[in-house]
Amino acid sequence: MLTVSALGKTYGSGEEAHEAIRDMSFDVAEREFVSIVGPSGAGKTTLLKCMSGLLAPSSGEVLLGGRPVTEPPEEMGFVFQDYSRSLLPWLSVRDNVALPLHHKHLDRTERERLVDESLDAVGLGDVLDRYPWQLSGGMQQRVAIARALAYQPQILLMDEPFASVDAQTRAELEDLVLRLHGEFSVTIVFVTHDIDEAVYLGQRVVVLTGAPSRVQEKLEVNLPSPRDQVETKELPEFTRLRGHVYRSIRSRGALSASAT
Amino acid sequence: MTRRVLQIAVPIACVAVWWAVSAGSTNFFFPPLRDILETFREVWIFDKLGSDVVPSVARLLVGYGLSAVIGIGLGLFLGLHPVARAFADPLTHFLRSIPAPALIPPALVVLGLGSGMKVFVIVLGALWPILLNTIDGVRGQDPTPLEMARAYGIGGVERIRRIVLPAAAPQIFAGLRTSLSIALILMVISEMVASTNGIGNFVLQSQRTFAIPEMWSGILLLGLLGIALSLIFGAVERRVLRWHRGARQAARAR
User: Fold this and answer.
1) Which residue of B has its CA nearest to A130?
2) Could you report the per-residue pLDDT of A151-172, keeping only the tens digit for each?
3) Does any domain span residue B1?
4) CATH topology for the A1-75+155-166+187-260 domain
5) What's the number of domains chain B is made of?
6) ipTM of the predicted structure?
7) B151-161 mean pLDDT
8) Mind telling me how many Å the CA of B148 is from chain A's nearest CA?
9) In a designed cystine with A198, which of A35, A45, A189, B53 is the match (CB 3.0 to 4.6 A)?
10) In this predicted structure, what is the pLDDT of residue A257?
11) Does the residue B127 lie in any domain?
12) Is residue B248 exposed (0-12), middle (13-18) or buried (19+ Cβ within 10 Å)?
């Protein structure tokens, strides 16, 4: 469904040039859940912005359903890392979620149905008229997820969405995303720096190296569904996979450190 | 609570002191407050209301309204277009450096004695704080909401109306507040320099004809008008920027 092909991105030019990602290639199948994990500073946000068409790549291309992505496509939803800034403080929760729907030429009842449904799906059916700043961080990120769902995307790109919430909330949000993945039959690309999170969520994990970032490894995750915060994480296979990813990232980090 | 009490108690005390101190005044230029208030009632309720107050307030509101429309409209455009801004920057800096009352003589020549001249002068003075604040507010915007707008295909008028304008609103309101006092000042000046009616004209004519209580009553009215405008402005601002205060308080609490 989504193909990243020989993707490269360099910021600036000449002496100042910073190569963020180099020659990256991988595929995402329809309705798949792919985690992308890499050390901090690995150009994960750059990769996701190139994939969404927010940022033009320096080389290579991104294809969505065979068509090159140059502008953010309508089939794509995006959940930003910084929910407190991607939600608009002057709009109520309802209006924040409805905002991207105004230019979709839906009639009013259809739009309201989508807003109600997606807010119900993230468990926020009763805070419609509040403002984002009246909600906790976890609830704000739920609003951002509801906004993406109401947009009815076929593919959802999530940029370290749970990096700044506490551990308990984070576990709840992880399970929420897994449930929504099934309910809304949507493809999800989930970027994180947290190895446990990547393995717990993904059907596949793409491991990135440090800058300039490349694909280190693509791993199948053969953990049973539905996943469970306690039971899944107790499985020997989970432990093996997280150890494997950890070593993979560390070995590469040691290599690039000795090379410089 | 204490602030509330003071806000009401201090003005009452000031008026009481004025009343008491001036009560026995025989100074021709500083008549007792009682006389001024008596004159105020005779002149403004409602003898001169239609002939002087209404024209003054109309000029003020039209001039201020035009400043707001032009300032915000042009400010949005210049804030969003760096190239246009580069062209306009030297010009705006020159124009806003000219004290607006200096333009009364040429405005008189071109537009005559009427209200058009006064509105023109008010706009030329009140426009700049609104324009410059709007430009700054638009330029200084957090890029994340704009990126969100792009990701969700929100563009054109919708992007400006729902994202750019509200984000710049706190700064625009700061400009609007400054411009309100400038507009009032320019209304009075333009009426004093060349006019056949208006509160400013009334104050000056009273002074020239040694109608001292009338002069003071006009000044009192201008003060009250300023307070009323400021109160109305505050109410509108509180309503429109309710989200801004709430968000700031929430951010501080965290």
Assistant:
1) B243
2) 999 999 999 999 888 999 999 9
3) no
4) Rossmann fold (3.40.50)
5) 1
6) 0.88
7) 93
8) 6
9) A35
10) 42
11) yes
12) middle
